[in-house]
Amino acid sequence: MASADAPLGGSEASSLQAEESTRRLRSTGAVASWESELTSVQHSLKFVLPLKEEFVCPVCRGVVLNPQQNSCGHIYCFLCLQGLLEGSSPSSPVCPVEGAVITPAEVFQDNCCKREISNLEVYCTNFPACTSVVTLQHLQEHQRSCQYERVRCHNPGCGAALQRRHLREHLADTCPHRTEPCPHCQQPHRLSLIQDHVQSSCPEVEVDCPHSCSRKVPRHELTEHADSCPEVRIDCSYKRFGCCVQGKRGKVKLHEDAAVNHHMLLVLRSNTHLEQQVEVLQEEALLRQQEVQTDSLLLTGLQKEIRPLLQQNSSHEHIISTAQRALSRQEDVLSAVQLDLQQVSRGLGPGLEELEQLRKSLDAVIQEVSETEALKEHLGTLEENLKHHSGLLELHAAQLSHNKQHLQELEATSYDGKLIWKIDDFRNRREAEIKGHPPCLSSVPFHTGRCGYKMAAKVYLNGDGEGRGTHLSLYVVLMPGDFDALLPWPFRQTVSLSVLDQSGAGNHRSLSFRPDPASKSFQRPAAGSVSNVAVGFSCFVPLNKLETPQKSEYVKNDTLFVKVKVDMAGLEQL
Predict the structure, then answer these.
(1) Would you say 495 and 476 are in contact if contact means Cβ atoms under 8 Å apart?
(2) Are 571 and 453 in contact (CB under 8 A)?
């Protein structure tokens, strides 16, 4: 068996030498960038002067790019020589001109020839349209700006090929995929899509009223138009008082003018019912007030009972302090007695009388210690009594606070699906919200009926989310109510939110929404939760229009009024 260090055979050494030379050729003869770009047009170039034979590659018969010289003196393109070496047997690549063996180790890059070739003058590849003459190494640079070079349109979906000098006109005037402004809303759109945009989604295009009132209105004003369209079917405005007439807005208006007496009777009947409810609420409020007074008297009595206990506790603490000092002194005496006993044990004879006195002193100390322990036990009992009475006092105080809060809610609660919320001290509250406390304001709860949904309003005076710092944000939230088990879920009634104009002009700012039945915000609130997630408008009204309006006055005397109205249509009262 041959040793690992044994020399290689002749054929193996030649093969390895050829491979090494090929790798060296690849690493040292990399094609320059301008020469690699000319490979595709190498055989179609038109030179000003006839090309010398020495500059013609014997393999591809084109102008030599990145010239490599063999030992026989012939010049090849780098890529042609590389293909020749790779396509032949490693030990026998031959020159296609003379048939001489090509030795890869003797191949080198001919920089002198390369300089001459790179400075040869050549016509533009777009000749005769373009008559420019440039050096070979600058040909590609010229083609990147040549006005006769064919380029492709870069508009998505086009891909047309045309001369560079026609590209600007094509992009601006003739390309079917160019971008043009919509003639109505001036928003840019692809030319092929403008017609669909105008017919289906342009907000400024006037369209026929969907309710067939013969008017044409801009598409973005359809919602506002529906609020005044005479062909829209609406309910009589006295529906909440019991009128069930429905029809087109114009006919309903005639009905409202003609049925004034009937409507007044309905309003009177509703007012009578409300008065009865107010009487019931007043009776409940009176009962609550009596309970508060009773709790106040009970609280006063407990305070009177606790005062002597506190005084007694202070006295006992003083007694315990005195006893502890006496105990300390007796411990010192006991230590002295123990020392004396040790001395007596050493000289017992003459000190029997003194020993008797020491025993009496020790008995007295033990008695005082027992009395001190009894005082400690009595003090522990007093402390437990004090904790018990303090707990009762805190319980009654919490009940009193709860009753007061409930009484305030009863006085402010409405049961007709409406809330008028007065927010005073507007500017100071907004400044406090800007500083981070509190994050928002919440109204007292209101209901859609005596046994209806329980709701509340929330407002961010300095805005919330995308409206922070620029808009007033207004929301409504569903809360757990006493009759949720009897109500239909999810909540489906339309809710209208308004900021009221205090100037008398009636320029109220209002927005409304219809609940999304799939949203968790309109499902039945969990019994243990405070409320569902609030729903409304983060950009309800800009703050600059709120505080400095032109034809209305929303903040007057530093007070803002917010209104919430729930559409009671189709809502059956329990």
Answers:
(1) yes
(2) no
C-alpha closest to that of 417 among 545, 565, 257 = 565
CA-to-CA distance for 185 and 203, rounded, in angstroms? 7
Instruction: Please state, in angstroms and rounded to a whole number, the distance separating the CA atoms of residues 317 and 377.
Output: 12
**Are 90 and 103 within 8 A, CB to CB?**
no
Tell the residue number behind the tokens 């509340």, with chain if given: 456
Instruction: Return the closest-CA partner of residue 393 out of 294, 295, 299, 297.
Output: 299
Q: What's the one-letter identity of residue 144?
A: R
CA dihedral 435→440→443→446, nearest 10 degrees, is 180
Q: Residues 6 or more apart from 188 whose CB is under 8 A from it?
A: 179, 180, 181, 182
Q: How high is the pLDDT of residue 157?
A: 76
**Alpha helix positions (H), 45-120:** 78-87, 111-118
* Residue 82: both structure tokens together: 């590389």
Q: Is 73 left (phi over 0), alpha (psi -120 to 50) or beta?
A: left
Q: What is the pLDDT of residue 378?
A: 86
Tokens 């409810």, residue located: 277
| Rounded average pLDDT per 10-residue block, the chain, 574 residues | 37 46 49 72 84 86 86 84 75 76 81 87 89 87 87 81 83 77 81 76 81 79 78 83 84 83 85 87 89 88 85 80 81 79 64 70 82 84 84 82 72 86 94 85 93 95 92 96 93 96 91 94 91 94 84 91 94 80
Whether the Cβ atoms of residue 519 and residue 535 lie closer than 8 Å to each other: yes
Burial 84-105 (b: 16+ CB within 10 A, else e): bbeeeebeebebeeeeeebebe
Neighbours of 328 (CB within 10 A): 10
Residue with tokens 């890059």: 109
Q: Is 487 helix (H, G, I), strand (E, B) or coil?
A: coil
Q: Contact, 133 vs 122, CB < 8 A?
A: yes
Question: Of 414, 418, 458, 454, which is closest to residue 564 (Cα–Cα)?
Answer: 418
User: Can you read off the two tokens belonging to residue 234?
Assistant: 């609406």
- For residue 207, give the H/E element and its range: strand 206-208
pLDDT value of position 491: 95
β pairing state of 418-423 and 559-566: antiparallel
* Nearest Cα to Cα of residue 474 among 421, 524, 398, 520: 421
Structural Rg of the chain based on CA atoms:
51
Residues near 443 by beta carbon (within 8 Å), at least 6 away in sequence? 419, 421, 456, 457, 458, 459, 562, 564
pTM of the predicted structure, to 2 decimals: 0.35
- Distance (Å) of CA 452 to CA 44, 394, 513: 89, 34, 19
pLDDT for 81 equals 84
Cα 459 to Cα 57, 373, 489, 520: the distances in Å are: 84, 63, 25, 20
Prior bond of 7 cis (ω within 30°): no
Residue 507, classed as helix, strand or coil, is coil
Q: The tokens of 189 are what?
A: 């759109």
CA angle 563, 565, 566 (to 5 degrees): 155
Q: Measured between alpha carbons, how far is 122 from 42 in angstroms, rounded to an integer? A: 12
Say how far residue 515 (Cα) sits from the centre of its chain: 22
Q: Hey, what are 445's tokens?
A: 């709860």
Structure tokens at 337: 């007695």
> Quick count: other Cβ atoms within 10 Å of Cβ 378?
13
